[in-house]
Amino acid sequence: MMRSLYSGVSGLQNHQTRMDVIGNNISNVNTTGFKRGRVNFQDMISQQTAGAAAPTAEVGGVNPKEVGLGMTVASIDTVFTQGNLQTTGVATDLAIQGNGFFVLKNGEESFYSRAGTFGVDVDGTLVNPANGLRVQGWMAQDINGEQVLTTAASPTDITIPVGSKDPARATSNVNFACNLNKNTPEILEGASEADIARGTWNTEFKIYDSFGNTHNLAVSFTRVTGTPNRWRANVVIDPENAEFTDTRVGLGTTDGEQNYFYVNFDNTGTLLSVDDSLERGSNPTGEIVLQASFNVPESNPNADGTPTRQTFNINLGTIGSQRNTVTQSASKSSTKAYDQDGYTMGYLDNFKIDSTGIITGVYSNGTNRTIGQVALASFANQGGLEKAGDNTYVESNNSGIAKIGESGVAGNGKLLAGALEMSNVDLTEQFTDMIVTQRGFQSNAKTIQTADTLLETVLSLKR
User: Fold this and answer.
1) 283 vs 114, which has greater pLDDT?
2) How far apart are CA 11 and CA 445, in angstroms?
3) CA atoms of 11 and 451, how far apart (whole Å)
4) Does residue 5 have a pLDDT over 90?
5) pLDDT (tens digit per residue) in 372-402
6) Are strands 358-363 and 346-353 parallel, antiparallel or unpaired?
């Protein structure tokens, strides 16, 4: 009889624990990145009143007789199912689709979280603004003007240089493509200005010097009289100031002596070769790259007093190719410079984060620079993590060590910027569990009441 009393007590205590977990789940129904808890029960040890007996030749076997001594909590699990994603429009808000945790640091202590409510502090460091924990990742390194990410290195604090400068860069490559009209009329001796205009395809494109000053690259194409499939291209930097800029174009390592070159096509209109004013020919199987140079106005002269010259490449495409290459066909001329790699100085105006966690800075001069990349951590047993408050977890003896890597790699999920992961608490499920827990608690209380009634009956035998 006393056994039932203590069985009921264990039921009351452990159903109270289950109610505590359900209450915590419901209280965190709107907590960003929260993962609900789940209580599992198991029975306790049983008292054996008679053991089992093996069968004999005369009778069969007898099962043991055991009385259970109540129940206990088997486990309180953290259920890491995916929460719904809610769009916020805030650039620094991040949500993880799939497995993984953000890595946060407090000094040398590491924390892990699914809540991506981040922001930048006064130093531009990406942090959790609620507690100042610093988001970990990799900063891009500038190697010969290119931003390179080394994700094999140890993660560090991520700093977004808000308001930083992107220095001016001189143009080093200009790419030409599209078509020259085969039916363009030749410019004959004594041609009028109108005839010259009809026989010339003029292109203009902005390029930059090392100071960020803008210059006008003017390239005009005309057919060579009496020679089929051959065009002459005149190159002038700043036509309105041509005598001071002194444009020169050539093939090879030097930039030539004149400001023109010749383009040759085969009978199908495919680029065949190029030769410059020094009668040097292009590689018949490779890319056509000419070197052009001009004087940079208002720059410091060289030691010998000559003006500083800027050199850049003019790329006409690949011989024998039709893609991103200058061609000749009986169609309207469309050849022009479509790309160059120079720019003026700019300031960081904005930044964006893509699905791989790469942070790209958008500058006022139109350039985009890789700033860094957000790291994610995964665990062999994420259910073994210990909750540390503030929507964070820490490693435990049974979670395994954090495997830190890029999103979308080695089992890590993908990131979604401008969104947050909501709690995975389902109120319908929680209220149903609450009813079941309440009834279980009431039933165990009734067990104690009934046992008490039996004890009272025993005590009344004396009366």
Assistant:
1) 114
2) 8
3) 14
4) no
5) 999 999 999 999 999 999 999 999 999 999 9
6) antiparallel
Please name the amino acid found at residue 18: R
- HSE of 183, CA atoms in CB hemisphere, 13 A: 3
Q: Please answer whether residues 419 and 93 qualify as being in contact, where contact means their C-beta atoms are separated by less than 8 angstroms.
A: yes
CA distance 142 to 164: 15
**234-247 CB burial, b ≥16 within 10 A, e <16:** bbbbbeeeeeebeb
Q: Is the dihedral of CA 85, 87, 91, 93 positive or negative?
A: negative
**Residue in 410, 411, 416, 409 with CA at minimum distance from that of residue 354:** 416
Instruction: Note the helical H segments in 199-256.
Output: 242-245
pLDDT (tens digit per residue) in 306-333: 778 899 999 999 888 888 899 999 999 9
pLDDT at 1 over 60: no
DSSP for residue 383: G
The CA distance from 144 to 8, in Å, is 74
The pTM score is: 0.77
Between CA 327 and CA 321 the distance in angstroms is 9
Is the pLDDT confidence value at 29 over 90?
A: yes
Give the tokens for residue 178. 């599209």
Q: What distance in Å separates the CA atoms of residue 149 and residue 142, rounded to the nearest whole number?
A: 9
Q: Report the C-alpha gap between 352 and 369 in whole angstroms.
A: 10
Contact 156, 134 (CB under 8 A): no
Q: Where does 88-239 have alpha helices with state H?
A: 193-198
Percentage with pLDDT > 90 across the chain: 60
Burial (CB count within 10 angstroms: exposed 0-12, middle 13-18, buried 19+), residue 457: exposed
Q: Per the structure block, which two tokens stand in for 318?
A: 């690949």
Sequence-distant (6+) residues with CB within 8 A of 228 are none
CA-nearest of 135, 11, 39, 153 to 439 is 11
Token pair 């004594």 is at which residue?
190
Beta strands at 119-120 and 403-405: parallel, antiparallel or unpaired: unpaired
Whose structure tokens read 């009209």? 181
